[in-house]
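Question (not urgent): is this output format expected?
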Amino acid sequence: MMAVPPEDRTRFPGLGTDPQSVRRRVEALERLMERMFVIPGINRPVGLDVILDLVPIAGSTAAAALGAYMTWEARNIGMSKWQISRMAGNVGVDWLLGLIPWVGAIPDLFFRSNTRNLRIIKRHLDKHHASTATIDAKAAPSQPGQGPPDSRKLGPGT
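Got this back:
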């Protein structure tokens, strides 16, 4: 098979190979697979991974294929073979647990391979591509009496 030169390849809009685009894609995939919605009552986030595990064999295999895509993205940004093998191991363990009909969805609530793999990818990107780093912070709600002092309440000479 003949190789296609890079300038002749079809480019898909929004599918950049730069580290920032990869970060956005793997974060979106992890959110879809592990934290799509929260189960009321137990307040545990679940995603497509748990839902697919309810379908014997085919569902677990489909979830593993999506997890393998995340590993493929890691290879494309130049992660080490050790990191990629750890990620493949996470996907493999998740796939094996999911092969157990019906019961395989329960361990998936606790062993979140896509979240683990996202953490490995983020660590690599933060170290080797610092410009892609994002700050995950939430604003703390202000408490009454905790804000800046009101100048009208201060006495004379203060």
